[in-house]
Amino acid sequence: MKLILLGAPGAGKGTQAEIISKELNIPTISTGDMIREALKSGTEMGLKAKSYMESGALVPDEVVIGIVKDRIALDDCKNGFILDGFPRTIPQAEALDSMGVDIDLVLDIEVKDEVIVKRMSGRRVCEKCGKTYHTESKPSKIEGVCDVCTGALIQRKDDQIETVKTRLETYHKETEPLKDYYDAQGKLKIVVGKDTIEATKELVMAALK
Ligand code: AP5
């Protein structure tokens, strides 16, 4: 299955992608994770993306389109993949179409802005492996320590409240129009995100059938 997860920042795309990836045994391609990785390694692309990302703006289309094109050409994507955080603009969606990628389903996880603003303050990520936690809804076993690799859990720079608000504005302006784009292709399904990961998972798995 070739699946796109749409939704506002913090809607739970990454969390659900991790679950679906295990269930269907297909990789998740997260442009956000790939950019953060490039930033950590200090590559040219990472340095270019830094200021956009930290201010809550989108990284230029040509940068992300290039990294996705290279990634989906790899062997592990042959049986399908989950795109988490891509496309995020109409030109990115058009680029995906012109790569000849036939998407099966676009799942939009809908969560209200006010819930997101509250939720983001509790998100913690492992600075070593990138695994995501939440202080209330998905706590680590030991506070501040990653269950998987024992790395330190930190707050993402772009999870500061003012940046979250900018990211939400960017989402409504640049990314939300993709709902109409994929609805017109008959590929859109909407899941209303619940206030637990498990309850949202039930709806997501039902939508995949
Ligand atoms: P990216 O990393 O993709 O950020 P995002 O889309 O803003 O999404 P998030 O990772 O913030 O949230 P999520 O929906 O995955 O939620 P999560 O599962 O973590 O992008 C970051 C930046 O990179 C962008 O701003 C941009 O600059 C750049 N970028 C990336 N892709 C780009 C592109 N294509 N084009 C241009 N620029 C691009 O959940 C959030 C929290 O809530 C977690 O703590 C989780 O544990 C918790 N949680 C999840 N679900 C629930 C639930 N149902 N109930 C309670 N808590 C929950």
How does this model look, in words?
The protein has helices at residues 13-24, 31-41, 44-55, 61-72, 90-98, 113-120, 161-175, 177-184, 197-208, and strands at residues 2-7, 28-30, 81-84, 105-110, 123-126, 132-134, 153-154, 188-192. The chain is α/β, with parallel strands linked by helices and 209 residues long. The longest helix has 15 residues, at 161-175. The model has no long low-confidence stretch (mean pLDDT 95). The structure holds BIS(adenosine)-5'-pentaphosphate. The site of BIS(adenosine)-5'-pentaphosphate has 37 residues, from helix 1, helix 2, helix 3, strand 6 and helix 9. Residues 7, 9-15, 31-32, 35, 52-53, 56-59, 64, 85-86, 88, 92, 119, 123, 132-134, 137-138, 158, 167, 193-197, 200 line the site of BIS(adenosine)-5'-pentaphosphate.
Tags for this model:
209 residues; alpha/beta; 9 helices; binds BIS(adenosine)-5'-pentaphosphate
Mean pLDDT across all residues, rounded?
A: 95
Distinct helical segment count: 9
Low-confidence stretches: none
Helix and strand content put the structural class at alpha/beta
Question: What's the N-to-C terminus distance?
Answer: 11 Å
Number of strands: 8
The hetero molecules present are: BIS(adenosine)-5'-pentaphosphate
